[in-house]
Amino acid sequence: MASGLEDLKQRGFLQQCTDIDRLEEIMSEESVSFYVGVDPTARSLHIGHMVPFYAMAHLQKNGHRPIVVVGGGTGLIGDPSGKTEMRKIITLEEIRENEKAIKWGASKLLDFSEDRGVMVNNYDWLGGLNYIEFLRDIGRHFSVNRMLTFEAYKQRLERGLSFIEFNYMLLQSYDFLILNREYNCKLQVGGDDQWGNIVSGVELIRRMDGNEAFGLTFPLITRADGKKMGKSERGAIFLDPELCSPYEFFQYWRNVNDADVERFLKMFTFLPLDEIAELAELQGQDINKAKERLAWEQTKIIHGEEEANKALESSKAAFSSGGSADRDAIPALEIDASELDAGINVLDLFARTNLCGSKSEARRLVSQGGARINDRKVEDIEENIDSGELVDNELFLRAGKKRYFRITVK
Known about the structure:
By secondary structure, the chain is α/β, with parallel strands linked by helices. It is 44% helix and 15% strand. It has helices at 5-10, 20-29, 51-61, 92-106, 123-126, 131-137, 144-147, 151-159, 163-166, 168-183, 195-209, 246-254, 261-268, 273-280, 287-303, 305-319, 337-342, 346-351, 359-367, and strands at residues 16-17, 33-38, 65-70, 118-121, 185-191, 214-218, 231-232, 235-236, 332-335, 344-345, 371-373, 376-377, 384-385, 394-399, 403-409. Helix 10 crosses helix 11 (195-209) and helix 13 (261-268) runs antiparallel to helix 14 (273-280). The radius of gyration is 24 Å and the shape is elongated.
């Protein structure tokens, strides 16, 4: 059996491991159950959440069993790791609803059929805990001095760390203990900001049950421009098509920095490494072919091949004037013909789209020469746009070189 760890290493997923040689030995000999925890704090995952799921998919393809733990219990508290302030507390009802979104997103990459993968909610074992017994049985194994050496807690201490968050490490470690006992789970994976919590779980299992357990972390992904992965000018790139259309999703990947293409092809697609190496060799304008392949693969995985093809053709139409492809995938807004007949100020028009979040943002766009309508540069912030601009009963708006929006008329 292949461990799958070499795949992770070659694709850039490995950051830290508690004992990589021993883990390699075990995973080469047997199928290992491993888990990642996911906070159910939003109605949709975004692409920044997907790094662990891609890594888990590679391990699953090598015969190992993923366990996705929805933090229904820990989500009621909030993890301080990697956060500059305390998270907003959400209700159990919100958590249960968000759990569905996690299952939908994880299922795009992981196979949960016939016990090949498992999804559980840690509220099932944390919700009924007796606090006094928990402190006696679990809390006594934790040193406050040791906890404060981990970077996540050191950073938060400078800004203020609540007692409720201070308990998070104990609860996550207890999760690992329960999973080790109930599912023979031997490995926890997660982002590198989780290192302290993961190591503490490994140690708790050894102290309480004498079992062997491991921790492995992935690098925290940032773009070449230093911005956080999964964020755009308009906010997070969500998987939910109601929050981010397949076209917008495609465009995010189509517009990544040249320096990110090879790394993202390795981490966010399942293309063979030799094919990725060939795509990475492309230079100049040809690098756009690699970006289109990255965008198409990602969109196919999350939204299906039909939507990926539609987004690709729409993108080509947008990038080439007079393109003949169906543009229906491009985000659109329908307005009344009478409203356009009367004329709409260009700032008001752009502010109503997802190209600009406000009139002041639209003003900056026009003033800097980045606003276009039907490929015509808009230069006057006082200009009114009316039905005389319509082409085939629509307006085609553009912000900068790569962001598009359609206005249709009813």
